[in-house]
Write a structure and sequence with these properties.
Number of strands: 5
Order of helices and strands: EHEHHHHEEHHHEHHH
Structural class: alpha/beta
Helix content: 55-70%
CATH class of the largest domain: Alpha Beta
Number of helices: 11
Number of domains: 2
């Protein structure tokens, strides 16, 4: 069973840095913002719905959505922001669920600024919230998006208070220090998840040891049967009957041994 980490926090707190650390440790990383970018490509259903809702004035000459222009609209108008979220969130959630199902890694980390607001946190086994100081948040946002201080403050003001996320957090990552300090926090929580996952596997094996023994014994007996019958001209139905009988015999052996 996969362990799903929901990674959130307000804008410019360093969620992406924590996601990269989790990916480095072995998690399947899913960046919801990057998914939203992809889903907003020209002529996609999401693109069409956004253009219909906000007009062609938000488009660049090449037809792509000007995210800065769209941001200036929605971050100054709560109703417009809700309208945008109603368009984008369902598509992002659907694609995220597909990626979780396809992931082969035992741990999946989903980074989304609106993880809680979109209800995606209910699909997660643990909720991580990344924090930093308000001044760091402002400086990082201005630097990463090339915004003026006024624009950056507008973006930050559109966010819900961080306390709302912190109330629901299972893990809080303080990203106000050095990269090494953040890394130590992430690695410590990762090791805890790995230990819990290993304990779950050991618990299953201990609880269902007869089932495990049956499967192992049956696999070995069927392998021997197929090897022994490799030169025998058997009909498919005959071979299938022998395999079924062998599996049942393995189960009977495990049951008899268990009675002692």
């Amino acid at each position: 069973m996969k362990h799903i980490i929901g990674l959130t926090g307000n804008i410019a707190t360093g969620k992406s840095s924590v996601l990269r650390m989790l990916e480095r440790l072995g998690a399947k990383a899913i960046d919801a913002d990057a998914l939203a970018h992809h889903l907003m490509e020209p002529q996609t259903p999401v693109w069409l719905a956004i253009v219909e809702a906000f007009g062609e004035g938000i488009l660049q000459p090449d037809g792509r959505i000007d995210r800065r222009r769209l941001g200036s609209i929605v971050f100054s108008d709560p109703d417009a922001l809700k309208r945008l979220e109603r368009i984008v969130h369902p598509a992002v959630i659907a694609r995220t669920m597909e990626m979780i199902q396809q992931a082969t890694e035992p741990v999946v980390a989903i980074e989304a600024i609106k993880l809680i607001e979109a209800g995606m946190h209910r699909q997660c086994h643990s909720l991580w919230v990344v924090t930093c100081t308000p001044q760091q948040q402002l400086e990082r946002l201005m630097r990463s998006r090339n915004l003026s201080e006024e624009e950056a403050r507008l973006y930050i003001a559109a966010q819900p208070p961080p306390e709302e996320k912190l109330k629901l957090a299972d893990v809080v990552i303080d990203n106000s220090g050095t990269i090494e300090q953040t890394w130590q926090q992430v690695r410590r929580e990762w090791e805890r998840i790995v230990e819990e996952t290993n304990m779950s596997v050991r618990g299953f094996l201990g609880k269902h040891y007869r089932l495990v023994a049956w499967l192992v014994l049956a696999a070995g007996m069927v392998a021997i049967l197929l090897w022994a019958a490799r030169d025998v001209d058997l009909l498919p139905s005959q071979l299938a009957a022998l395999v079924v009988t062998t599996v049942l015999l393995a189960g009977a052996c495990v049951w008899i041994i268990g009675l002692e």
